[in-house]
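Re-running Protoporphyrinogen IX oxidase to confirm reproducibility after the cluster update. Everything else is unchanged from the original entry.
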Amino acid sequence: MPWLKFLHIVALVIWCGALLYLPALLCQCLSRYRDATFGTAAPSLLRTFFNALATPSALVAIISGTLLFLLHGLLGGWLILKLVAVVGMVISHALLGWLVIRLEAGSERWLAAGALGCALLAGLSMLAVFMLVLTKPLDWSGGLP
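Result of re-run:
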């Protein structure tokens, strides 16, 4: 099972990096989109990065984390809190995908603020996951056979 934990950590690092990089890339593409000539489409790098790197790494991280939970029988309040924090990362991921679609559609309103909000939500969620995994508060597994 060490390979599964390794896969989970690698996928999580890639996903977290993508969640922090996507808002910056979105703002960069937004500024280039505003400066472009009439009729220029939004850059495809943003969608490619989201579809080819961020989303697959998110899926691998979630699936491998679920398998680790099921195979090791982990139990504790910290795990429930961690899953809530992971939901924050998933919401940030989904909102970033929505912002990418809005940029491609030509709707620039609130994109920069949305990207900043997504970055803050993702960063706080990642920090919560990191702290919960390291400290494991409310660990109920000590009393289980």
